[in-house]
Protein 1
Amino acid sequence: MRLRVGTRLENILQEGHFAVTVEVGPPRGANPDVMRKKADLLRGCADAFNVTDNQTAVVRMSSLGGAKILLDEGLEPVMQMTVRDRNRIALQSDLLGAWALGLRNCLCISGDHQKAGAQGKLKGHPGAKNVYDVDSIQLISILKNLGDKAVQEGGDSLDEPAPFFIGAAWTPFAPPEDFRVIRLAKKIKAGADFIQTQAVFDVARFKSSMEKAHKMGLTEKAAILAGIIVPKSAGMLRYMNNNVPGVDVPEDLIKRLKSAKDTQTEAVKITIELIEAVRFIPGVKGVHLQAIEAEEMLPEIIKKAGLLPRPKIA
Amino acid sequence: MDSKIDKGKFEPEMVVLFCQHCMGKDEDPKAALNKISGLKAEFLIMPCSSKVETSHMVKILADGADGLLVVGCKTDRCRFLTGSTMAEKRVDYARGLLDEIRMGVDRLRMERGEELSCLQMMALVQSQADAVRALGPNPMKGAKKR
Amino acid sequence: MIIGEWKPIEEIVTMLDKHKNVLLVGCATCMAECSAGGEKEVETLAPLLRMAMKVKGRTINIYTKTLERQCEWEFIEELTPIIPKVEAVLSLACGIGVQAIAERFPEVRVYPGVNTTSLAIREEPGLWAVRCEACGDCMLAETFGLCPIARCAKGLLNGPCGGTRNDGKCEVDENVDCVWKLIVERASACGRIEDLMNIRKAKQWSHSSHGGQKRMLREDLRP
Ligand code: SF4
Ligand code: SF4
């Protein structure tokens, strides 16, 4: 099969390897060394590295800037792009700039509302004016057209195409649950090449969502990477279960982590079990790992899960 | 405001809005009032405490009354079921406004009673007057153009 | 209707700081309906402002008037006899009414007493909620009569974001239903869920205020 873009991630998926992506949050500051340190820590552990775009609407180094630093360090970034802060003009312009700098993977998401930032420890910018000129599905279409047809959303043509390997998010469990797979289908129809899901803790429930996606033929059309968040503590699991939409943590898991003698060891164990469990669900083509503010845990987890070394690509 | 006013001697002028059902049938608060020396109050009877509007309450205070007491029926005894509850919500809202302009929320209060005797009513007024006394006279005193 | 709510009294008091004679004007239409600027509110705010000023050691003379509609020239004319007596007008109309008065009486300062917030419906007594954002390109036909522009915090056009809470409320406000959940439910109730499969293209915001100042011209109605 011909590669659409030729990124490492695309290659890995196309060659049938079980892909590993991890999330790298840019710093709340302008120091490039923070990104470089994370690159050193995670080099070789994953096929691609998601760089978040002002997650929870808290201002951080841009995903474009952060992704470029990773690229310079020899890691393959996935630039995340939300539609919260930029209109179609800015989005497309940044995409062209990103492409020119060598970035080729892009994950298209709605983004947390700016009021979400105010709910955490940080102030964020709840008084900001948001944009939401296009939605995440429309952004996927925009990327598709920049790459396949070399045309902008408004109809003007580009000098030459700027193809991206296009990613999208999927939250299978949030209400209205029956519609979630339809929304996934829309994203794939719009042009998504790969999908990273919201964190999975309830494997059985995820399996049944995957079956629905499989029946609709979606697992053939796009590569679904199961999202896995390293559970740092029982409190964090409880918090996510109660407060993070679409995250459903079985009570047993919370209890298990709570009663563990060594939380960290148990957390690693749980993560590895989750990876192994989702790995054998038909249609799951990889995992997307997040260790929020604990990225140093990832190399060990990935190694113990038997996912190292990452395959070489031709 | 005249700071020389001795708050101990200041006798607030009260207005009492009360629902006809919360006092005993033959009780006459005006007559009873005369028997209590010093207490100054004007009694206005309403068919139901829910008839009180925010604008009435604010106006009574803006016209110079030092304190305003709204007396309604007990929650479960209101003839109009939710009348006294509605009145209480409005009183709370109006108290919020008084707070916003720093007039002192305690100039306005709601009490509830059932078949009150004159004596009981006077006790309510007296206790509200004590609260108002602490706030001093209404700066709007004498504002009402007659 | 248009909804709004009183500005903080402190802000109003500061606005009126330099004035001795003020006309407080209500509007008996939308602002009366949403209990922000009808006759009742005018008659509450006027004594309240007198007190607020007095507390600060100042006196103010407030005239009051409530017009049938503050956004129509013919009703605004009713203010003509009072305007010469005042230095300022405090309007409890929506922003349209405030501007109409400012336009008609340029000789006085005009202040808004209300923050106009949205185009809404009274869902229940004492509870109003947004329904429309005047986007100029109504898409209610495709969304089963529920507006995702006004009622989705992100104005999404192709289905719910991943943030819908487990109880179906919006990620941004635990008291508000995720409108996309409602749209999906209504579509299912009509047996037309497949209508929501279509990918809705990027919206042409040029029909809304994003496209510049809106005007509407009907030659047939002009003198
Ligand atoms: S689609 Fe536009 S015009 Fe229609 S209700 Fe929504 S905002 Fe108003
Ligand atoms: S939860 Fe629903 S209403 Fe709220 S932003 Fe997301 S899609 Fe819109």
Note: Residues C 132-135, 138-140, 147, 149-150 surround iron/sulfur cluster (ligand 1) (CB under 6 Å).
Protein 2
Amino acid sequence: MSLTRYGYRNAISGFFEFPTDNARRILPAGLEPVELHHGTSIFSMTVFDFTESEVGAYGEAVMSVIVVPLVKPGERLPKSAFYPYLVATTTRAAREHAIERWHLPHWMEDVEIAFEPQGNRLTAKVAADGAPVAEMAVGDYSWNPVSHLYQSFMRDGDKSYLASITMEGEQSEHEEETGRVRLHEHAFNKDLAVSEVYDVPFREIWMRNGAQTFQPLVQLETA
Amino acid sequence: MEAAHKKEERKSVFSDYDYSNFYYGAGDDPVNLLGPFREWYQEAKPNGYYLYSEPLSSAPATHVQVRNGKTGAVHDLLNLASYNYLGISYREEVKQAAIEAVNKYGLGASGSPILSGTFDIHEELAREVASFKAKDAAILFPTGYSANVGFISSIMRSGDTIFCDQYSHASIVDGAILAKSKTVFFRHNNPLDLERKLGGVRGKKLVVVEGVYSMDGDVCVLPEIVDVAKRHGARVLIDEAHSTFLFGANGRGVAEHFGLDQEVDFHLGTFSKSLGGQGGFVCGGRDLIDYVNAFGRSRFFSCNLAPPLVAGLRAGLAIVEGEPELRAKLWSNVAYMRRRFAEEGIDIGKSTSQVMPVLVNNDAKVFAVAEKIQDRGLYLQPVTYPAVPKHKSRLRISVSAAHTEEDLEQAVRVIASVLREEGICR
Ligand SMILES: Cc1ncc(COP(=O)(O)O)c(C=O)c1O
């Protein structure tokens, strides 16, 4: 079984409350949003600073909805699952690779991603077409080595795919509500009712000095 | 790096999992999650989850007999976990009333309250509760949970909007789900966020708050909430599960405490906390109660409260009305605990009530701390994620009027010594 590995220096994620109506507008049929409370689903933004991969070093921003994982008897239960509805990369090579191999939906131009560390906070700034798209800051807590299994669901035309992804590295995870996101009115954010995304993440995950490893893609039966 | 790698190897697959990981799972079979859950629970239970549901073999008084979930041994422990805030559940008058009712009525009501299950004492208890709360009428529910579910879903429908505090009790959330209304959560105890969320919403609106929040023991900022709700044409429901019979000059609750008894539209409470019994109620005008009687599904599709319980509740209510000194004793006990915790440098967050979270703020340690405290003679409950946010784990304490100052002092000393040993307080 051949695995695809992406080494990163930093990967920061914010989990934000947003209306389930909005989540359902984004999700294809067959995927259910995880609700934090009744009527409130989870939008997540993750920004990677990849240092090594088949396509070299690059930056990547992933906009996702947290969804119900697929559970199969005898298989390891994933920690959670997501549906990345928009991925943006800083290089064309990274984009073409991810589209071809993982069927991930992409912003079709290179974006600019800047990481700005400040004390125990890290801010990622994403710009597209020369205009700001999103700025997200997360803070750290205590650091622990982890190896977590996630599922990523993809839809490409009438085909559905599942990738099992292991995230390894040092992790800081907390719910201190110290982070922040600013989502700009920009075509990049057209799927979100931006004013209804709560701008303080209820959970912040920061991973550093680790690797993201994909198992081979699985094609699912589409309902 | 080598050491970190070894440490990681020792971790089991489920060491970073918690209840929330086993809630959702798509697949072909509804039982798919049972196996992974069992595997996790077998590991989690001896590591601390056994501290939940350890069986008591005595009344929930200030001292209880508890069977240790790990060793099976029964220990006498000082009880800081029960909701028996006024020590009423085991009072002689209460027990006697229940015994007499067993002799007269037998065990159960054997019917729905809207069919054959309403007895004379149900009507009497409802009248007495209404009179205590200074309302026209009251309606009884099988539990406080059922009161929220039944009341909210009896007056709200799909197309309406319910605004709940983000820390709302599950029964409020479940009521909103059953109502099929749009549900909007505002930041905890934050009238500004409520105002922002109410803005521009049309149609029927209900704001739901709690008198005292059960995980933090903080009191609702009711004046500001009511002001915002009124300005936006929303009705207000207050769940006084942890505050009826305790707050306010007459013990009616937090609404009375703030002088807002009339301004709040709907008053809900339970008999399971301060009265040490079971059951819930809603009070208000006659029209409201008649309507809820007709449409409160959780009530009328369930058997009515057992008559011996109702008799005990009436005796308990008589004690509350006849002995206001019980409330005074509770508040002096609360003041004592607050002062002593402050002296010991123990953080109880925003609590200003008889519910006190002793903040451990360390999810990895909270069970070990609770275990040590239990080994030194105290019975209290650890609370961890997902019941509270990550790293906000705590030990939840319920102060009772029945505690003596010696009880409370012993509790503070044990807690302080363990927290110090574990490096949680200075
Ligand atoms: C705020 C609140 N409402 C309702 C309930 C449910 O009450 P009962 O235990 O009577 O069902 C509780 C119980 O914990 C509560 O804390």
Note: The first helix of chain B runs from residue 2 to 10.
